[in-house]
Amino acid sequence: MAFGLHMVGHLQRHRPDQLPDALWQNLLQNGDTAWIRGTIDVDAGTAALLPIYQHPETQLTANQQGNWLKASANQGATMPYAIELMGRATRCCTPNRLTLTTPKWNSGHKVHEPLQFAITIPYNASTTAIRLVRTSDQAVLASRLVSANLPTVAFAGPAQIVGDEIQVSWTGADTDGDDLWYVLQYSPDGVQRFAKVVDGTAGSATIPLQYLPASTGDEGLMLFVTDGVNTSAVVSQTISVPLQAPVASVATPWEGETLPLGQGVAVQGSGWDAEDGFLPADDLIWYLDEVEVAMGEWFSLDDLEAGEYTLRLVVQDSDAQTSQMEITFIVAAPRYSYLPLISR
User: Fold this and answer.
1) DSSP state, residue 164
2) How far is Cα 283 from Cα 298, in angstroms, rounded to an integer?
3) Where do the structural domains in the chain lie, given as residue ranges?
4) What is the dihedral of CA 144, 183, 58, 120, to 10 degrees?
5) Predicted local confidence at residue 287, as pLDDT
6) How far apart are the C-alpha atoms of 105 and 42, rounded to whole Å?
7) What is the Cα–Cα distance from 36 to 52, expressed in whole angstroms?
8) pLDDT tens, residue by residue, 66-79
9) 3-class SS at 314?
10) Pairing mode of beta strands 220-226, 181-187
């Protein structure tokens, strides 16, 4: 079975809620799928496949299939690659190829850096190897063999909330001796949404609560382990995550920045909440030296006199919880250096 990759530059998987630092997806149901990701260096003619995850008895919804890859508007030359699922002697299934496209900068020059891809495809149980092929010459750029045994994984104990963090640890084993890779997901409802909070080889994690939405009764942690292809999973006991305060962020001006006298000061910031996502403009209030001056994500401070100023952004979420960020900046008259006048 072969699957092509349609890819533009640095791709990101679709995040319906647009939440930073977390991948949100619907719970997959009914079917066998594999999540395959990696990089391709077009100039060098090399590629790498990262650890692959199987999702037994799951499939992507039509919405996920349409939004799994998020592409740029600037598309360059079409360059075909394919993911092939191999059986004992040949492909497991009928090839189904798409294309990969390389991006261009606005100037028209191609991006000369490895391209990243992530794709979820149906998985065949008779697969013995997964490989990435350049279809122009059938060169195999990267591959992963399917070992004989499934890895195992178990939580070392109940996850604990300590202060403003979740602390959790686990152990994994593989009779084939393969290197193991873990993905830990948190779900606030156990049904519709899952956030990837850990992706790597570590056997423990400390997760800030600030970025996790509050639980609704069926929440939990789901832990996946892969030996490169074979995948096992375990679901933890329920863990109760409380409502979190929002996060305030001031983008400009910078802390300690010195700005010229007589020039407007561009102010920009945002508010984000684990339950609400990005906060609307009405929930962002700005103060300059403790005086309310504006509402919204951006505005300009004009006609400021020379001196040091304190700028504070206060944000409020739908639960009436607030947070703030404060910075100082300086407005100063430009300094001129005068050279002595030499007369003859």
Assistant:
1) T
2) 13
3) 2-145, 152-235, 247-332
4) -50
5) 98
6) 16
7) 5
8) 333 332 333 444 55
9) strand
10) antiparallel
